[in-house]
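Example (one chain per record):
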Amino acid sequence: SLLGTLMALEAILLASFILMRQSRTSRRGEERDHLMLQVLLLTEKEITAVLSMDRQIAERVGLQKVANDVEIQQLSQHTSIDDVAQTIKESLPSE
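Predicted structure:
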């Protein structure tokens, strides 16, 4: 009976430690994901600025074909993060 009680107590303690470890690991994963999102948002902002400057340079040096390229114009415009998030949310399968 005492041995059974000790075994049950050990199982409870082990389960508690495992759950705490999983919680900590999950929290670290969420922090990494958040950091990665911030890096990606900053990268997108910087690339948009570089494309905009490239278009302006192309206009000044007379490269109208490059400056007026529709795809480059679209990529050099500000991207609304809320719109992107909404589009992603709508494209995910419903649970």
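Caption: The two ends are 47 Å apart (CA to CA).
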